[in-house]
Amino acid sequence: MDAPALWQRYQDWLYYHQGLDFYLDVSRMRFDHAFVEAMRPKFEKAFQDMEALERGAIANPDENRMVGHYWLRDPDIAPTPELRQDILTVLEKIESFTTKVHSGDIHPPGSSKFTDILSIGIGGSALGPEFVADALAPNVPPLAIHFIDNTDPAGIDATIAKLQDRLANTLVLIISKSGGTPETRNGMIEAKKAYESQKLDFAAHAVAITGEDSNLEQLAKSEGWLATFPMYDWVGGRTSEMSAVGLLPAALQGIDIRQMLAGAKEMDSATRIHNLHENPAALLALSWYFSGNGQGEKDMVVLPYKDSLLLFSRYLQQLVMESLGKEKDLDGNTVHQGIAVYGNKGSTDQHAYVQQLREGVPNFFVTFIEVLRDREGHSPQVEAGVTSGDYLSGLLQGTRKALYDNQRDSITVTIPQVNPRTVGALIALYDRAVGLYASLVNINAYHQPGVEAGKKAASAILDLQKRVIQVLQDQGEPMSLSQLAQKAGATDQIEAIYKILRHLHTNQRGVVLEGKLGEPSSLKVSAV
Ligand SMILES: O=P(O)(O)OC[C@H]1O[C@H](O)[C@H](O)[C@@H](O)[C@@H]1O
């Protein structure tokens, strides 16, 4: 396509939302008129599916649940007055709790104010709060946030060490919808021990955000924690940023959550429109479908050209991959759907892997996220008439062109600046694009059956570890791995036993391995 034709295509497809000052450009996705026409009936169905979902249909049939994250931004569209009231009540509770924490009305036992937050959660109970904190927390927030989002002991130590001197003034948020995720429970137990080691009352510092009647809620109530906030079964973890999961930590950091909700609500209205051309989420879903042939054949590389949006790619990775990565479609056919998502930020990544994007395997499309406002205040010149921000902007345009010239497609999302409204709008845009795309490819975007397999296998390994330790303790003599496996009744799991023992041995957990470590059959194992 020559330059005038490309400029015309750009103008024909440019989407602009006046209220949000938001642009979407899909002109560098090479779909043609025939493709768009062929997709129209599929989109009509997708629009209707989304309408039914918003009206309260069981859009997550496998878990027999409604899908209501859109109601959080506009409680008036909740399907019943009770649900509407629940949403409003929680929002008021978040705001009044936050006001009291900021004023010192709610304070830790030994001092006048909380200064820090330790947020413990994983997956959808971490990625949204982490992204929003990075994107929006003021430089000097009323409370500074820290995260434990794994069961890595060294990672837990590093976070607790940073907080050691301020633990007495740290508010701990335990976030888990199910209230039973082991990584989160482990983080909580370790945090509790850190409090106890300083003779601090953990309960007086702890807040739970969790589903009704979960183990975590029961624990919080029985121990008299500072507060609990509910999570509803109709909000999925990966779409929970606008529930208490995301709003409470954001509000405590001084982020304007009403603006986040307003931006999301505005984008929700814009993405409800039954018209491909006028609906930015539909344009995204159309582009994804085109690029990957409706089968995820190409990866989505997300490149925000703004440091504060770095974690957006990681946030989207869960939203897109956990929602769309499914073995079966809604009719039970095996389809192995999904779109792989990765990315960090531009221009930094241009000095890392963009070489491959330009010249290597053409198995991706890029989404550039452009932010028009460079910074607050004046920019110095780095060359005559040129600022650092001009460079960032030029590098984005240059990469987009260099990729397009080499048959690599891209989408560009443009926002005026990073603020609570635009971040809310971005989250809402992708919520809807994922929902529409799921309808196009006929899958349930709101469950995650595949995650269970790894959890079950991990719990079987921990059971095996207990059995193996018991056998070792009962047995006085050193044994070979195969003898041990036989006595534990697990001859088919000798490799797992070897790995368990190697880990216990390294951590001096009462197991000694003798022999050549790289030759498992030479090893003798005993308890000490
Ligand atoms: O909030 P939780 O119940 O602790 O769940 C935390 C995360 O873990 C699960 O395994 C799911 O795959 C995620 O969708 C979820 O967000």
From TrEMBL:
<dbReference type="GO" id="GO:0048029">
    <property type="term" value="F:monosaccharide binding"/>
</dbReference>
<dbReference type="GO" id="GO:0006094">
    <property type="term" value="P:gluconeogenesis"/>
</dbReference>
<keyword id="KW-0312">Gluconeogenesis</keyword>
<feature type="active site" description="Proton donor">
    <location>
        <position position="322"/>
    </location>
</feature>
<dbReference type="InterPro" id="IPR018189">
    <property type="entry name" value="Phosphoglucose_isomerase_CS"/>
</dbReference>
<dbReference type="GO" id="GO:0051156">
    <property type="term" value="P:glucose 6-phosphate metabolic process"/>
</dbReference>
<comment type="pathway">
    <text>Carbohydrate degradation; glycolysis; D-glyceraldehyde 3-phosphate and glycerone phosphate from D-glucose: step 2/4.</text>
</comment>
<feature type="active site">
    <location>
        <position position="351"/>
    </location>
</feature>
<dbReference type="Pfam" id="PF00342">
    <property type="entry name" value="PGI"/>
</dbReference>
<comment type="similarity">
    <text>Belongs to the GPI family.</text>
</comment>
<dbReference type="InterPro" id="IPR035482">
    <property type="entry name" value="SIS_PGI_2"/>
</dbReference>
<keyword id="KW-0324">Glycolysis</keyword>
<dbReference type="GO" id="GO:0005829">
    <property type="term" value="C:cytosol"/>
</dbReference>
<dbReference type="GO" id="GO:0004347">
    <property type="term" value="F:glucose-6-phosphate isomerase activity"/>
</dbReference>
<keyword id="KW-0963">Cytoplasm</keyword>
<keyword id="KW-0413">Isomerase</keyword>
<protein>
    <recommendedName>
        <fullName>Glucose-6-phosphate isomerase</fullName>
        <ecNumber>5.3.1.9</ecNumber>
    </recommendedName>
</protein>
<dbReference type="InterPro" id="IPR046348">
    <property type="entry name" value="SIS_dom_sf"/>
</dbReference>
<dbReference type="InterPro" id="IPR035476">
    <property type="entry name" value="SIS_PGI_1"/>
</dbReference>
<comment type="pathway">
    <text>Carbohydrate biosynthesis; gluconeogenesis.</text>
</comment>
<feature type="active site">
    <location>
        <position position="455"/>
    </location>
</feature>
<dbReference type="InterPro" id="IPR001672">
    <property type="entry name" value="G6P_Isomerase"/>
</dbReference>
<dbReference type="GO" id="GO:0097367">
    <property type="term" value="F:carbohydrate derivative binding"/>
</dbReference>
<comment type="function">
    <text>Catalyzes the reversible isomerization of glucose-6-phosphate to fructose-6-phosphate.</text>
</comment>
<dbReference type="GO" id="GO:0006096">
    <property type="term" value="P:glycolytic process"/>
</dbReference>
